[in-house]
Amino acid sequence: xNYVSADVLPEELLKEVQKYINGVMVYVPKPEGVRKGxxxxxxxxxxxxxxxxxxxxxxxxxxxxxxLSEHYHLSYDSIKRxxxxxxx
Length: 88
Description:
Layout: H1 11-20, H2 44-60, H3 65-72, H4 76-83
């Protein structure tokens, strides 16, 4: 999170804000729809979705949950959660 001095605001707006708060930090969120979801910026979400698709495909081709857990270094329960979950 970046901090910016309130001096960047028009003087009228700054005076109006000071009627409600004065001398404290204020968080101004981004507008709806601008914020990216978890992992979209770094690519983590794409990576995990691809990995999970690969796990589901391996399971559909006959690999056991145990084999997949060994191959992907995930717990048995994590693999079960992936292969038995509904794909969005």
